[in-house]
Amino acid sequence: MIVRKPLKLDCGKTINNFPIAYETYGSLNNKKDNAILVFHALTGDQYVTGINPVTNKDGWWSHAVGPDKSVDTNKYFIICANIIGGCMGSYGPGHQDPDTQKIFGTNFPVITINDMVNAQYNLLDHFQIKKLFSVIGGSMGGMQVLQFVSNFPDKTKTAVPIACSSSHSAQNIAFNELGRQAIAADNNWNNGEYFSKNISPDKGLAVARMAAHITYLSKKSLQEKFGRKLQKREHLKFGFDADFQIESYLRYQGSIFVDRFDANSYLYITRAMDYFDLPGQFKGNLSDAFKETKTKFFIISFTSDWLYPTQENKDIVIALNAIGADVGFVEIESDKGHDSFLLDVPDFLKALKNFLEKSYSDN
Amino acid sequence: MKNEFKAIVDLIDKNTRVLDVGCGDGTLIEFLKKNKNINIRGLEISKENVQKCIAKGLTVIEGNAETDLKQFPNNSFDYVVLSQTLQAFLNPELVIIELLRVGKKVIITIPNFGNWKLRLHLLIKGTMPITKNLPYQWYDTPNIHMCTIKDFYHFIRSKNFKIFKSLAINNQNVSLINDSNIEIKNLFAELGIFLIEK
Questions:
Q1: Which of 3.40.50.150, 3.40.50.720, 3.40.710.10, 3.40.50.1970 is the CATH number of B3-113+146-197?
Q2: How many Cβ atoms from other residues are within 10 Å of residue A170's Cβ?
Q3: For an interface test with A, which of B33, B39, B50, B77 has the most A Cβ atoms less than 10 Å from its Cβ?
Q4: ipTM for the assembly
Q5: How far is A47 from chain B (nearest CA, A)?
Q6: pLDDT in tens, B120-130
Q7: Which residue, of A97, A339, B149, B192, has the fewest CB within 10 Å?
Q8: Smallest Cβ distance to B51: which of A326, A329, A350?
Q9: Three-state DSSP state, B17
């Protein structure tokens, strides 16, 4: 889809005639009241379920989305778009700058969560949907959920922000900065101008991914899965090769990531997350972000998520309760860390399914 | 439907906002939603019960009444209900004060430790009483602050809170408690239900 309508970004620049790549699953009913907009996280994309044609692997939320699954494609019409700033077809730093005819690189405007949401809002017009049944997302997807309801208080019946925060913490920013500096330290990055030279900062991006990946897991799950197990060897080698399985695992995660992700997009998206401060948009009062809304919220956190811990999710619940908004909350027991929302965690999938089904039958 | 819940429902007006603290599996919420046009939500500490409420389509917040009531603004509900949970709190007095801050009116039900069966059990057997309302052993009971109807009645008065209505439940019978019959009710009632206000 090419968005013709100009979009004024938070940075002050305006973009127009820009592409948004999206996928849909299920079918829109006649009343057009069964549509769900799913927002993806930092390294996600529009291929929510089924086989991702780029990676040839299952879509990132195959556990939750599909026929008879929590987000049931037999029942609902699911739309998921690649965020702007991304690298899977929506307008991003890998596109050509219409003014210079050169690849944007770091000349792409800095975007925010608000910009991403406003860009995706065009999908409602595209499908002529007056009101969504739900907006759902985990991690950065959850931030988009919050921003969506704040921007469009009467455009969705329900909202499910999962494992997220209304404001990026210093620790969150610190981890993102570590990733960005890893990319910048790779000579191939070349200040973002690497497309023209046919090179890419794979090493830097892989290190960024390795560091981030650790934050998505819990200490317990790492210990149980890897412990101090050695990688295909009986003894330590007294060198700097990957002696331990965890080292080998992280190196592998880094290496497969660079095949599907663009380093500049990684910079832009992590920046957008760091800039996210919904209470900050309302003079420090998060409740004011939702003042107008009748949207029914369901907030979900995970016990072992230390990146977006339960308390940060609960702060959103508290802000909604302060204005008497309709909000439910559950903390799911899981030792799989922040990644829990992407994995097969039955209690989570059950809660999500039940919430959607019961809210839908109220229609 | 438990008699207790029927009695609670009769105390609540239509078209009101209600918070059920310690809502369990949501039985009371469901009953109130069906019978009166009530905007009701629950606060529940057990993850298992929260899941049950979600499966019933009820709005529930996982949380602990002793720490999580502070998120609700003053007088944000017309009624706050606390059904047979008071005795499980570390600090029941603080919880009551919080309930009265959050709700314009508060409905509290308590299992009556003054009931003759419990008194007799302790007197004859010399061991901690176990009944259908209080089915636990002394070492595994969540009920750490048991009281009698009389204790609670006097406590609320001593704090200068107003008791609008107090009811005694014994088997199928629901009856009013007042100053003149409290000794009798304290001896025969299994449960006490109190509608109070600041």
A1: 3.40.50.150
A2: 8
A3: B50
A4: 0.91
A5: 28
A6: 999 999 999 99
A7: A97
A8: A350
A9: strand
